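Onboarding guide, step 5: your first structure request.
Type a short instruction followed by the sequence, for example:

Predict the 3D structure of this protein.
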Amino acid sequence: MKKIYILCVDDEPEVLQAVEQNIAELEDSFPILTAESSDEARTLVKHIADEGNLLGLVLCDHVMPGDNGVDFLIELDKEDVFYNTRKVLVTGQAGLDATVKAVNEGRLNHYVAKPWQAEELIKIAKDQLTQFVIRSKINPLPYMMSLDAEKLSEYIRTEGIVTDR
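The system replies with structure tokens like these:
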């Protein structure tokens, strides 16, 4: 079975650690990788794809040295292999223009303002990963306990993935 990764990108190690701690309950089903720059994130993304695995969710800061987060998310969106990857901008410094660019050019799925609430971040991560599983047409059964079981059950029912026959 292919692994589905979560990638967290932020140039501040303390922020990366906080994000990772907030979503740690997902790690049994979705390995979490961290990167402190867009360049480091690109290397991890390439490795995920080269191994034949999937990138389910990216939680990315905007203001970083080198390429900013919005540009990284737009670049990622242009890769067919990451078409279903869910993209969340987690920042306190992206202005309206950068956010609109992320939405329009990078198909941004969600915006989280810093500082965030831990409960909000885990809820968003679960929702986005649920959407990834559904949109990617992945067998949802292994993820019923960690994601939105109601949405996954509806997906199973409507798609006829599992029957009682």
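Each response can be followed by summary notes, for example: Residues 97 and 103 are 10 Å apart (CA to CA).
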